[in-house]
Amino acid sequence: MKPFTLLTPATVEEAVALFGQHKETARYMAGGTDVIVKVKEGWMGPDYLINLKKIPGLNDLHKNEATGELSIGALVTHAMLEQSLLIRNAYPIIYDAVSNIGSLQVRNMGTIGGNLINAVPSADGAIPLIALDGTALLVGPDGERSVMVKDLFVKPYETVLTPGEILTRITIPAQVPRTGSAYIKFGRRAAMELPLIGIGVLLVVDEDLSTCTRARICLGVAGPTPLRAVKAEQMLEGQPVTSDLLTGAGKLAAEESQVRDSVRGQAWHRKEMIRVQVRRMGLRCLDIINQKARQA
Amino acid sequence: MTKTISFILNGDEISCDIQDHWTLLHLLREELGLIGTKEGCGNGECGACTVIVDQLAVNSCLYLAADVQGKQVQTIEGLAVHTGSLHPIQQSFVDNGGIQCGFCTPGMIMSAKALLDKDPKADQEAVKHALAGNICRCTGYVQILDSVAAAGRQMAKNQGEGAAAAKDPGTITQQSMNKKAGEVIT
To answer: Would you give the DSSP letter of residue A23?
Structure first.
């Protein structure tokens, strides 16, 4: 591996200042599961690695009970999310997505922020955060700004972050009652494999437990960036959600997707799986909503 | 850049000089001579280099040596006691044929240990989930899963007898943490 100097700032401001000092010869590093591989393989060769792991507070995960807002620090690892009862119970779509990223060894190191910034079209971590209308907080040389997670991605391996900016946290607005959410990483196997296709669905229904008031259908590996099938979402909103309606939404989502042939799978197969899995994930959302309604 | 780090390795406090770009795997194998931990792919895909850092299984090939400062690291060398008796997981791999060529074994055992230390009664799904990042190219997975299940039963039994701490040399005790080694390598 090409030698580098490891810089370990204690605050975000210090990290940004270090980047300002070393500019393009520096890279930020969170969990390291992508950056170290890229340095080893010679895809990047920074002279300085700015290690964000020692900055207090960046791996903080909590729900503000007053506002209902969920705050996920960018350095929270996939394993921390997977093992959080709060996530498992209230945000099943996040649990579904992170529990099959890489392997446990990778999840113990890799972070949700790093997963987003790496900006691969298959990023399992991005889909649930888009479905949950998450916002990313970016801190850089020119101060702070917020960007919806859905607007974070430009193209494969490229985000809207400007040089020196750091993703510090993701916030998820309070969940409306009667929300269900689910994600499936669909492929030959879950572990140590990128998905053939990733499908996340979130549904909110009215008090009748049937009429859809909000729908989110988010797809991974269905285009150059994670994307939302907005037309399919609109098809569900305002309607009583049935298996047939979900089948229709699945078809529309497949049409809206920008799937292509790749070494991992063919476009027609991906479309078929979107069609099938949007329906299945929609039904799972309804199950979750009904189960919670019975408990209440 | 060179810096000095201190950490607890298999129960002993050590400090050593490292380079910033060294991985934990490099430090263990090339500098400290602990070659039980293997390098397979070097990219975090095979799990042969798995070690335990602060109770978590990690790929030492992607973990920077600098990041173990102040932490507790366990490697396969820390499992058997000096009198020669094996850790229950090691013994179980021997007894149940969980080893073929042996290259993946240290990583398998460390992943299994991270799981069973937390939950010796982990069911097979939990074991598969925890070991999914460890690849055995001899494909002896059935025996490996059997070995972990049997080890879990043994560890649960030991715990039941209240003897876990005494029989598990991999668990770092207060006494060993307080041991002053002060050994400086390089």
So the answer is: G
